[in-house]
Amino acid sequence: MGRFRVLVVDDEHDIVELVRYNLEREGYEILCAATGEQALQMARSHMPDLVVLDLMLPEMGGLEVTRHLKQGEKTRRIPVVMLTARGEEADIVAGLELGADDYVTKPFSPRVLAARVRAVLRRDTRPDPEEASVLKAHDLLIHAGRHQVTVEGIPLDLTSTEFRLLRFLALRPGWVFTRSQIVDAVHGEDYPVTERSVDVQVTGLRRKLGARGHYIETVRGVGYRFRE
After folding, report:
1. N or C, which end of the chain is more exposed by having fewer CB within 10 Å?
2. pTM, two decimal places
3. Would you say domain 134-226 falls under CATH 3.40.190.170?
């Protein structure tokens, strides 16, 4: 496999150069964009392996860019790491609801950003020991190798995070997991995320499951479980 290609989107030149320098040191091929429109054009033409995306962009903001990426047939599986200013929890939640994979708050440590990028790329590419297995949970078929969930033969359009969350719970029906256990399983240990973010992911997953959203049960004061 060649070098991973990362698209960095920010309208502040100094930040772009800081991110570019540190990610190139990690061995990534870097593409840069200063506007949302340019970012979408480059994502569609160059198909990066990951996008580092500032939310505060002129004209078309980062949330709108994320929405277009996740709705595009070619680009919807590209992971997105958001760059946000401190205190923008509403924007972080909105980005996660749209399918973003992670976020880093400004001012940020370049080493932390590099570690987050590395973690997202690793979990999207590492082989699954049960890659060929298909898990049947009620009337859901969860195919690990294809990263696909089908209901009566119809595939659901889940983000990679939603897929991992559903599969983690469905592998152990009836078991109750805390939010921190879910974060460790889905994102990796020592991943700094708020309980609100976990709830957002569960809410989004239930919405996509539709009439089967009740398969994921809330255990008040504890966490979540998959219905037996």
Report:
1. N
2. 0.63
3. no
